[in-house]
Design goal:
Blueprint: E1 7-13, H1 18-32, H2 36-47, E2 48-54
Antiparallel strand pairs: 1-2
Helix pairs in contact: 1-2
Length: 55
């Protein structure tokens, strides 16, 4: 058999407190008038480190 490459996704919290980053992002989104539908995915990417690796 031929070995196949697979994708590994690692999620790790950032070093700063989660509540501090989430609150700051929510306040900035509210001040800018951005809908929560767009703010929440961006807050996730800011508060969690996402790494993609091919194994």
């Amino acid at each position: 058999m031929v070995p196949r490459r697979t994708l590994q996704i690692d999620l790790a919290p950032r070093e700063l407190p989660f509540w501090l980053l989430a609150t700051g992002g929510a306040v900035l989104g509210a001040q800018a008038g951005v809908a929560h539908v767009f703010t929440l995915p961006m807050l996730f990417l800011v508060t969690v480190r996402v790494r993609f690796r091919l194994i």
